[in-house]
Amino acid sequence: MRLELVPRARVWPIARALSPLVAIIFAGLMAALVIAMMGRSPLAAFDIYIREPLGDSWALQEMGIKMIPLTLIATGLVYCFRANLWNIGAEGQYTMGAIVGAILPLATQGMELGRWVLVIALIMGIIGGALYALIPSYLRVRLGVSEILSSLMLVYIAQLLLDYLVRGPWRDPKGFNFPQSVMFDPGSTLPILFEDGRLHAGLILAAIVVLASTVVLGWSLFGYAIKVIGSSPKAAGFSGFSSATISLTVFAISGGLAGLAGIVEVSGQIGQLKPSISAGYGFTAITVAFLGRLHPLGVVFGAFVVSLTAIGGENAQIMMKLPLDMTTCFQGLLLLSVLAADALTSSSIRVVRTPKKEA
Amino acid sequence: MEADETSSVAVDSVKQSQMLATIEAGLAADHAQNSGLLVEMKGITKRFGSFTANDNINIGVERGQIHALLGENGAGKSTLMKILNGLLRPDEGEIFWKGETVQFASPQDAAKLGISMVFQHFSLFENLSVLENIAVALPGSIRQNGFNLRRLSRRIEEVGEAYGLTLSPQRPVYSLSAGERQRIEIIRALLREPKLLVLDEPTSVLTPQEADSLFVTLEQLAQKGCGLLYISHKLDEVQRLCSKATILRGGKLVGECDPRSEDVRSLAAMMVGTHVPEVRSQALHKIGDIRLEVEGLTLPAPDIHAKSLKHIMLSVHGGEVLGIAGIAGNGQSELFSALSGETLSPQARTILIDTMPVGQLDIESRRALGAAFIPEQRLGHGAVPNMALSDNMVLSRHGTDRLDRFGMVNVRRAKRLSDEVVSKFDVRFSGKNPVASSLSGGNLQKFVVGREILARPGVLVVDQPTWGVDAGAAVAIRQALVNMAAQGAAVLVISQDLDELFSISDRIAVLHEGALSAPLATGQVTRETIGLMMAGSEVDDAA
Predict the structure, then answer these.
(1) Fewer Cβ atoms within 10 A, N terminus or C terminus of chain B?
(2) Is A129 part of a structural domain of the chain?
């Protein structure tokens, strides 16, 4: 006996719209089962994971802070993934954006030069990430090197470079030998949105990027070309779109947005360079992009869910002694459920019975 | 598509139960049994919608016989073989195996009886060795019966020696030539102890020398009592190898004969037919200036399955339809992609559109000069399967029809243009603006053809305009092409369907092995001559 996926003749729009909801409920039930098996109350866990963070201003701001880099990076990844190009190295582009973006703020530290330093820092962050992403893309276009491996391996190079910088040339001399740079000037940090809060202006940048990408991917000829290349390269050739140009461009956009996320995180949240500037955002963003079904607005939703469970997970660890891995586990369950729900709305499962073997 | 089926066969066969130990006894034991009809297909009919792919076909293969199944592309050979292999079920008719009626629910059922297929396209893992590739596709039960790679490796060498299929089991597949790769497929089939071996155009990717050694193997197999069904359209091969031939045309059985006692001309005539065409060219249209010209185009083959183009010379006048005949895989898609600009030519002057050298221009620049192109493959080349029709409108006309405004796609205009194509070319579908893949082949082809024709090109290049399209749609498409020419466009039609070329073209040239013959006026040439040229025999004589 074996199972086969058979494409459905008709995909119901309602089923398509409801499938993420069904996926979330299913993943929640599975998580509840795991929590129950660990001897904890699933209801109490629900309360701590979901309900409490949503009712708490501090937790909401923390969620926003996590959503900013996730949204920026995942939106960039949507460009690549739609073109069927697999940029797995957003984490490295994020790190490189943070490094290149930090050059000017660190060099001018103490001079109090004002806001324009921040603007240039952000632009340099974008350029740093974009150039770094162009390495795997160029290798792919020119030499046919798999972008999956090369982009992933470049992550480690970027991380080690950051490590070297903050332990070596960029180390804060007054930092008690901690691996970290000096703090940015106030002029080169992103402004805070609410008084006494931590949520910074990166949120506005992320919103602009999401809206612009919605327009570009949804209605522009460039967005159209990305979709054509992603679904059939031969048709793209027939259409006259150069797959080399598009590949390089989407990688540059993706890397640029990851780089922007990096410098935004450093100048908005952390205020200095140190080895731990990322909580694995570049990798989590892959999940976010797929949770959002490769749509910029969906990405916001995906980033929301992931941030919510991350905050909830910290609380659950403190209050219920649930391991932090439970959060990763739930995010994994959720991603699988969303992908499965998508597959099952467009296909149905058929059981094929193989006749018993004769002797 | 064929590759998918091959792999599913391979996967299925893993489940089939046969033991390596019995293979040795296999063919010899079979030979000892009495001879007679091994397999017989009676009254097989298979319809796809309104299209009848097989219409009441009878065919029988004896033990030890090499039986040819002859026919042009689209004649129904593949459908018939898929039915024999259990991939398709016939609407009518019966299959008899050694005189007993059998029904195949799946390829495993056919494999269990001893029917093995060698497909035209290989399904091999490039990075694995010969041995590993064969082990992967072996029946699963072997593993439970003391399966071991070393023994299998020895078996491969033994079988190889016995049939002259020299092959080192340790070689990785990527280092092998096409002929050597095919040997893997044949050894795979032989290890399964076949009683009937079906080969689908096995020489299409082989060099003449490789083909010769294949024939020796096949003759040996036949001598040992295995029945062989040899699918081909190469007449010289069939005459050399086969003692019986069944000929299909347009889904119907048109003849049975002993090809050795038959003249090549009569075989060609049976294969390509002589029935009356349905479309008539517009009465006496004016032939104008040369609008499309190719001057000594030579292009190397991009990979081993492709053909190189050898010094192609052609010219198409305004008001004229030039037909390019030829059997699939003789350089048609390579020629198309050189003409469209998807492959650039080494020199600009080798291709001219309205006397403008375009060899180095991409497809969009050629469109801007008034050319349009219709590729053979509608889904995935001429149209994006998962995109709506209006989005597919943008595919080829974004540059020439102001569908691109400030970088944004003009969705409303695209919809309007696509509605125009739908109504003028009678494209039928259910729902509103559906995705391309949901349309039937004929309707999608009408859409793709209509999209290009309504761009009102001065030069139109079409590859297989009516491939896999039902008769009604085919006539409509052919008529549209003829009308294009009547309005002054230069139309170049690449087709394997001789009836089609005879009904619409003013002149016909034949593409064989990447070389193009001089064109012949349609009125002064017979189907038989073209058929002979297509099969590659006596090209000089034919002119």
Answers:
(1) N
(2) yes
The pairing of beta strand B290-299 with beta strand B351-353: antiparallel
Q: Which of B172, B174, B136 is nearest to B152 (CA)?
A: B136
Q: Could you tell me the domains of chain B?
A: 2-272 (3.40.50.300), 274-370+458-543 (3.40.50.300), 383-456 (no CATH)
Does the pLDDT at position B477 exceed 80? Answer: yes
CB contact under 8 A, A228 and B395: yes
Count how many domains chain A has: 1
The CATH number for A255's domain is: 1.10.3470
b/e string for A233-244 if b means 16 or more Cβ within 10 A? bbbbbbbbbbbe
Tokens of B17: 């139960």
Name the token pair of A15.
Answer: 């089923």
Q: Do B105 and A355 touch (CB under 8 A)?
A: yes
Asked, for residue A14, whether it belongs to a domain, the answer is no
Residue B409: helix, strand or coil by DSSP?
strand
Structure token digits, residue B425 = 């070319």
Q: Is the pLDDT of residue B539 over 60?
A: no
Burial code of B166-175, b = ≥16 C-beta within 10 A, e = fewer? ebebeeebee
Residues in chain A: 359
Option in A222, A235, A355 nearest B407 (CB): A222
- In terms of Cβ atoms closer than 10 Å to its own Cβ (0-12, 13-18, 19+), residue A12 is exposed
Q: CA-CA-CA-CA torsion for B411, B415, B420, B421, nearest 10 degrees?
A: 100
Is pLDDT at B100 greater than 60 in this prediction? yes
Average per-residue pLDDT for chain A: 91
Contact (Cβ atoms closer than 8 angstroms) between residue B70 and residue B245: yes
Q: What is the CA radius of gyration of chain B?
A: 25
Q: For residues A201, A296, A13 and B423, what is the CA-based torsion angle, rounded to 10 degrees?
A: 130
Q: Is residue A177 very low, low, confident or very high in pLDDT (cuts 50, 70, 90)?
A: confident
Pick the most confident of A223-237, A307-321, B85-99, B195-209: A223-237
Token pair 């490189």 is at which residue?
A96
Q: Which residue of A has its CA nearest to B396?
A: A239
Mean pLDDT of A258-281: 94
* CA-atom Rg of chain A in angstroms: 22
**Option in A221, A228, A235 nearest B407 (CB):** A221
Nearest CA in chain A to B113: A358
**Pick from B16, B386, B407: CB nearest A220:** B407
User: Residues B524-529: what's their mean pLDDT?
Assistant: 83
Angle between helix A202-219 and helix A296-320 axes, rounded to 10 deg: 140
Instruction: Report the candidate in A70, A66, A130, A138 with the shortest Cα–Cα distance to residue A100.
Output: A130
Contact residues, chain A to chain B, C-beta under 8 Å: 219-222, 224, 227-228, 231-232, 234-235, 237-240, 242, 354-355, 357-358
Contact A87, A294 (CB under 8 A): no
Residue A160: inside a domain, yes or no?
yes
pLDDT of residue B32: 39
- A25 part of a folded domain: no
d(CA A232, CA A227): 9
Query: Which residue range forms the structural domain that includes residue A125?
Result: 67-334
B501 to A18, B151, B278, B515: CA distances (angstroms):
52, 55, 11, 18
Contact B387/A355, CB-based, under 8 Å? no
CB contact under 8 A, A232 and B381: yes
Place of tokens 């909401």: A60
Q: How far is B540 from chain A (nearest CA, A)?
A: 36
The first and second tokens of residue B532, run together, are: 């002979």
| The token pair that represents B107 in the structure block | 């390829």
Query: Residue A303's pLDDT is what?
Result: 95
What residues of chain B have any CB closer than 8 angstroms to a CB in chain A?
A: 15-17, 105-106, 108-109, 112, 141, 340, 342, 362-364, 367, 373, 375, 377, 380-387, 391, 394-396, 398-399, 403-404, 407-409, 411
